[in-house]
Amino acid sequence: MNSANDFKLLMSHWADIMEANRDYLTRLDSVVGDGDLGLTMSDGFRAASNAIARQDQEDIGRLAYLAGKAMSTAVPSTMGTLMASGLMAAGKAVVGRKALNLEGVAMFFQGFYQGVMQRGKARPGEKTFLDGMAPAVESLLEDCKTGASLKDAALGAAHRAHEGFLATQGMTAKHGRAAGRGEGSRDILDPGAAVADFLMKGFAEFMMESGANKV
């Protein structure tokens, strides 16, 4: 990711993905929650993208933090707050950087993951967003050690996130309304993990389609 402008474009792409999958996220969430996840994610990521689109700011970390702040105001629901916390924590993790190589990208997503975990008080294996994001972050950190290209690392992380999302079918929910189902929650795919899946899929698509994969 060569510049702050690349990050702005990525945020816009994430907003497009959440909009395109709004109905799907709503259907998943209607089984276990309020059924508003699709609207929350599409509105939240669009607000985050719009908030930084015209910012004269070269610091990617600062932009991510500002995007998170905008999301927290636009969609102050549980999941909106978690995603806003993730963005703000990701921004803090890479503050001062005008470009992100693979190491920087790994730091960004690790910060995102940790921000959500700290805010939500959940852990991997409890059928949440973290179960989609944790394997993606692990994949990025592994690729940092092997010297993979950023494009290949993005594709690998997206694949691992999707696997993590699918693996939530079989887990017992520990949080939210789904937890009230007890063992009955095992048959349900987690909508939060679907958001993580779309985030990493969107990042991989962006790296493939833009010039941002040159770093």
Plain-language structure description:
By secondary structure, the protein is mainly α. The protein has a single domain (4-214), classed as Serine Threonine Protein Phosphatase 5, Tetratricopeptide repeat (Alpha Horseshoe), CATH 1.25.40. It is 69% helix and 0% strand. The chain has 9 helices and no strands. It has helices at 4-20, 22-32, 37-53, 60-74, 78-93, 102-120, 130-146, 150-167, 191-209. Helix 1 packs antiparallel against helix 3 (37-53) and helix 5 (78-93) runs antiparallel to helix 6. The chain is globular.
Tell me the number of helical segments per DSSP (H or I, 4 or more residues long): 9
Number of domains: 1
Category from helices, strands and their pairing: mainly alpha
Oligomerization state = single chain
**Helicity range of the residues?**
55-70%
Q: Note the run of SSEs as H and E.
A: HHHHHHHHH
Question: What is the secondary structure topology, with strand pairs?
Answer:
Layout (H helix, E strand, L loop, with lengths): L3 H17 L1 H11 L4 H17 L6 H15 L3 H16 L8 H19 L9 H17 L3 H18 L23 H19 L6
Helix pairs in contact: 1-3, 1-9, 2-3, 2-9, 3-4, 4-5, 5-6, 6-7, 7-8, 7-9, 8-9
Gist of the model:
By secondary structure, this protein is an all-alpha fold. It contains 9 helices and no strands.
